[in-house]
Design a protein that fits this description.
Layout (H helix, E strand, L loop, with lengths): L39 H4 L13 E5 L5 E6 H7 L3 E10 L4 E6 L10 E2 L2 E4 L6 H13 L6 E7 L8 E11 L10 E7 L1 H10 L6 H9 L18 E2 L2
Amino acid sequence: MGKRPPSRSADDAAGLRRPRPQPGQGHGKASRPRPRGRGAARRAARADAPLAEGVEYLEITDERDRPLMAMPIAEARRQTLRHRVVLVMLHDTEGRIYLQKRRATKHLYPGRWDLSATGHVRAGEAREDAAQRELREELGITAVRLVRRAEVPASEETGFAHITLYTAGPTAETPRPNPDEVADGMFVDADELNALLEHFRDMLTPALVWATERGDVFRDMPAPCPDTDAAWEGAS
């Protein structure tokens, strides 16, 4: 896959704890997070147990990305357990990428420019479904083609997230940023993105820096889909 990378959340889903060209959090050698304490397993909502209504659950995984249990997002964050995150790069028909500006109220990287959409994969949810959901919830974009670009295994540097990077589009739809999720947004071309990286690096999230420096943002742009209602995932 090339270089190991470095976010948003599902708010801060893939947000890194320090600006470096990797999609991760923290630093140093990766540890093996496990549910802490004897009561952790009882607090976790397993696949065969009823889930509380109105609570967002993540699927906790092992180091090989095999599902172990479902757990409320707040508890999963507290225990820094392995989970899944998607990062999405949305392109328009001119080949530009859409950047979203994170809200000032975000816990990680408030006010910085980020990839188009990012978020946690919910318990029982496929990665591509999570990517489509984040595009819909954050930008009002529906039924776009997805191409998987990269997979990053969970480690301390990724905040113990198994990260999947997607390209989406090209789309002729105009993004409609959800004010509850996104402060602002804009399409930029390769020259404009490189200028941002060179002169305003501290205004970009580590995930955006990582994807740009890997060369993934404008690599092998997919052709327009003749059926805009058909969304599919391409091979990496």
